[in-house]
Amino acid sequence: MMRVVTAMLPDAHASQDRIFTTQNAVIVLDGASAFVPVEVSPSTYVDTLGRILVDGLTAEPEESLSELLAYAIAESASLLDLQPGASPSSTVAIARRDGSGVDLLVLGDSQIVTPHDVYVDTRIDRFAQAPRAAYRARLEAGHGFDETHRELLKVLQADQSRHRNIDGGYWIAEAVPAAASHAITVRTGPAAPTWLVLATDGAYRPMQHLGLDDWAVIAAQDSAGLYRLLNELNRWEKCEDADGRALPRAKRHDDKSIAVFEC
């Protein structure tokens, strides 16, 4: 019997993260704004992408996750009138259980943890290394999330945009369906993992920094336990690292989502 337990901070009304479930699958999305101004918000994009993925997983239970994602990206772009390079984007993490194993898909830096492995797509980290190093050094020096920090983030994003969804670059769910074929995919055999944890980077990065990433312990939590964990991360960011000196990051609080999938 599949059990799914989730937690999000903030909730979906104020977050660009989303968690969707079906009878045998979990989807975690982490939306981001377009590099150029567009009328479609990241929240609208992830809502649309997630609903289409849920419909596909339900209607086509044996279709490959990459094919389902490619269709969802294409349909989202069509429905929302989006163009490559002028669209919100999202990381994607999907886990699906069937009678003979588990399928996993990761695109972007949301991650899936099993009892023996961690799956995360870090290709974006190869790009914009200079502005990333610069903003982290300023945070470590105590300058905080000031205007110069925000300008460095703009430079970083402009650099990243030149490498998005092209050969030799990094791939993300946006308006290019072919990105789905570059996702990390895994198929387990009959000895499928008994649990999985899906998490966005806003959750797992501070967890790792604080040594709160004992995934077997996390997999045993109920929803209240997961919310206590996320609240502790927010408390630490606000009260003990408000200027990002200990854990350099783009902003004080990133959206945080985590889903435990007992399969």
Description:
The chain is an alpha+beta fold. It has one domain: Phosphatase 2c, domain 1, CATH 3.60.40.10. It contains seven helices and ten strands. The strands form two sheets. A five-stranded antiparallel sheet has the order 1-10-9-6-7. A hairpin with a 2-residue loop joins strand 4 and strand 5. Helix 1 crosses helix 2. The longest helix is centred in the first third of the chain and has 18 residues. The chain starts with a strand and ends with a strand. The mean pLDDT is 96. InterPro entries: PPM-type-like_dom_sf.
Tally of alpha and pi helices: 7
Fraction of residues in helix: 25-40%
What spatial order of strands do you see in the largest sheet?
1-10-9-6-7
Number of domains: 1
Biggest sheet character: 5 strands, antiparallel
Strand content: 15-25%
Provide the gyration radius in Å. Answer: 18 Å
Stretches where pLDDT is under 50 for at least 5 consecutive residues are none
InterPro entries: PPM-type-like_dom_sf
Protein name: PPM-type phosphatase domain-containing protein
Organism: Cellulosimicrobium cellulans F16
